[in-house]
Design a protein that fits this description.
mainly alpha, about 65% helix, transposition, DNA recombination, DNA binding, Transposase_mutator
Length: about 80
């Protein structure tokens, strides 16, 4: 369930395509600072959209991970002090 969802995401590629698309709309920027501000605004917009959204329930994910990879027994633990 989680492996497939983590493996098949392409958010970075979609974000790069969105930056390129908006760059094509504007066509030319007066200087590098204006281009940087535009990309920064786009990244801030995407951050706000994703800040409240969680694809995975973290507690459920940790339970799934613990069931898949159980912790080794602590019978042979020795103190180093």
């Amino acid at each position: 369930k989680y492996r497939k969802r983590l493996r098949t995401t392409h958010r970075q590629e979609r974000l790069n395509e969105e930056i390129r698309r908006r760059e094509r709309v504007i066509r030319i920027f007066p200087n590098a600072d204006s281009a940087l501000r535009r990309v920064g605004a786009l990244l801030a917009e995407h951050h706000e959209a994703w800040a409240g959204r969680h694809d995975l329930d973290r507690d459920e994910f940790h339970e799934w991970l613990a069931a898949r990879h159980p912790a080794p027994p602590l019978d042979n633990v020795v103190s180093l002090s």
